[in-house]
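[step 3/7] inverse_fold.run input=structure_tokens len=332
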């Protein structure tokens, strides 16, 4: 009986692997495609643009700082694969005025054709204890990280649905999969992206448009360096429990997953575990992906409990050290 059950399980898994490609999205061809990257003047955004350009895409870079855009344009153009490729730069704040964003997307489409892939990389991080953060910080992060992804996506979605082709990428964060000390403002804005992506994917899937949510870990970018200047001790110690990734590595994985139409894009073993743990009602790209999540959920939850315990321990130690310092100052 046991052998029969094992044989049935093996046959079932093999069947899933055989059927899975039939229901998975057809990969997007990047040669000649028009890719728009917001926040494309530095960090992950610039590396995503380079990766797409290496594969023959036409690029529209969108960011606020015109000087940084022009510098990024020069770097990207070094990686051309043919003399027809173009890098277009547009300076605009994607989080402030939807009509402005809509207009610049129209300009880009008039010059380089319909947008085949949009990568929403514009974002920022500010950390601090909940009661120490100004209310304006919550508003600012929600505006930049959430609305800064809504506006460009809203500007391209109609054309993508009409053409029955398209990819939209939202760059969230591992802090958009679990809440951490010091990230009450940042995590909430990144969690919001997940909800937007899930709902949008259900709307656009019948039109052959696919959404990808990327959850990069700490990545060596100018934004990360700026964030580290004001990180609370607890946040910094928790962050140091994992390694810092290179933006080129993150960008390659994002582009790969977007081309394939994968809903989740994660980096490394920790990223894979987090994506499986937090999959909830998220869509899957293949049956095998869903099966892997079902099989690994219990094990990953057990491992996660140890992580959570270690994070709580860090917070308690910092609190005790702070209390001792305050006592010492009073008695001095």
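[step 3/7] decode complete -> sequence:
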């Amino acid at each position: 009986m046991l052998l029969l059950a094992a044989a049935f399980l093996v046959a079932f898994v093999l069947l899933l692997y055989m059927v899975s490609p039939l229901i998975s999205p057809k990969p997007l061809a990047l040669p000649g495609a028009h890719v728009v990257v917001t926040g494309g003047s530095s960090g992950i955004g610039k590396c995503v643009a380079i990766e797409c350009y290496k594969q023959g895409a036409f690029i529209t870079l969108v960011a606020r700082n015109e000087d940084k855009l022009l510098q990024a344009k020069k770097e990207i153009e070094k990686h051309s694969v043919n003399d027809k490729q173009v890098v277009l730069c547009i300076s605009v704040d994607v989080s402030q005025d939807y009509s402005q964003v809509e207009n610049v997307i129209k300009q880009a489409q008039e010059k380089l054709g319909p947008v085949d892939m949009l990568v929403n990389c514009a974002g920022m991080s500010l950390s601090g204890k909940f009661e120490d953060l100004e209310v304006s910080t919550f508003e600012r992060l929600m505006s930049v990280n959430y609305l800064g992804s809504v506006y460009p996506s809203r500007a391209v979605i109609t054309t993508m649905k009409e053409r029955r082709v398209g990819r939209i990428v939202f760059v969230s964060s591992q802090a958009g999969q679990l809440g951490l000390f010091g990230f009450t403002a940042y995590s909430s804005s990144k969690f919001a992206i997940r909800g937007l992506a899930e709902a949008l994917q259900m709307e656009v899937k019948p039109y052959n448009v696919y959404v990808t949510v990327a959850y990069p870990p700490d990545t060596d970018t100018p934004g990360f360096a700026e964030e580290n200047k004001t990180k609370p001790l607890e946040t910094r110690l928790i962050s140091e429990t994992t390694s810092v990734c290179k933006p080129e590595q993150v960008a390659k994985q994002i582009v790969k997953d977007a081309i394939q139409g994968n809903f989740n894009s994660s980096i490394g073993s920790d990223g894979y575990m987090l994506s499986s743990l937090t999959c909830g009602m998220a869509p899957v790209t293949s049956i095998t992906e869903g099966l892997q999540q079902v099989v690994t959920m219990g094990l990953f939850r057990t491992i996660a409990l140890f992580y959570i315990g270690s994070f709580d321990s860090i917070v308690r130690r910092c609190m005790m050290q702070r209390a001792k310092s305050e006592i010492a100052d009073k008695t001095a």
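[step 4/7] annotate
The chain is about 60% helix and 10% strand.
Residues 323 and 329 are 10 Å apart (CA to CA).
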